[in-house]
Amino acid sequence: MYRYKNLLVGLNLGDQDIAVIRYAAMVSRLAKSEKIFFIHAAENLEIPEDVRTEYPDLLERADELARKQMEEMVNRGFDGHHGTEKVYEVAEGAPLAMLLEWSRQNDIDLILMGRKQDCGENSKLAAKLVRKAPCSVFIIPAGSAAKIGKILVPVDFSENSADAMETAIAFASASSARLACLHVYQVPTGYHKTGKTYEEFAAIMKGHAEKDYRNLISTLNLRGRDVIPIFELENKPWKAIKAAAQKEQADLLVMGSRGRSAAAAVLLGSVTERLIRTTEMPLLAVKKKGANLSLLEAILKL
Q: Fewer beta carbons below 10 Å: N end or C end of the chain?
């Protein structure tokens, strides 16, 4: 867990922050994080003068009130690594822009943010953040318990999948969690031209997936952890992933995301994005640190 020294936690001062703070505490313990930044971004922190006159108790600056509220929430819910320095910041501006700017300025290794259980604007923000962030992003749905008993890693045997597996292995090693690796395969539409039945070609596809799985595992340092391989035949990968997570009673999804270069930064995998918006369990979208950074710097200059 060496990779998560600097954490950035986005707070909206609502109920969903409770789960985010608890997960941030857990990550800081597992990684022995050095510094954690709690940030609240508000579109407008100014209080109208007529309101300040009518309600003198509001004379204290809005940003100071927000910082005080953040500190109170963190003090109630944060039981992280004792050596982790906590920094509080209230910034005025669009939440996405603020999170991206702070991640760049403070050499952030991991961003944590909450997501409401609905699929509204908050889930869109989460997907945009994963797409543009220069580091991994941890999405925590409201009400999630801060525990990792079993990790599910959906893979397609790409380099991004290997990155996700390495991260999941690190979490499993630090938390003693069980680890399962899922691959969802399909039968190609033109299978009938081969003279094979659907079932026969499905067996062929599964055989290839099992071979690719063995090749992937052979490249990884499992750190003594056992990995449970799971192969599911399903035309809608997101559906199979959600079903497998429920069946395996997983506490955490760890997935690779695109964004290895500026050109790919705007292409978040459709499966990952759908799960970010809809999953009821925490999801860690893994990205190499520094991914998208040149594009991010260009965006922030606009």
A: C
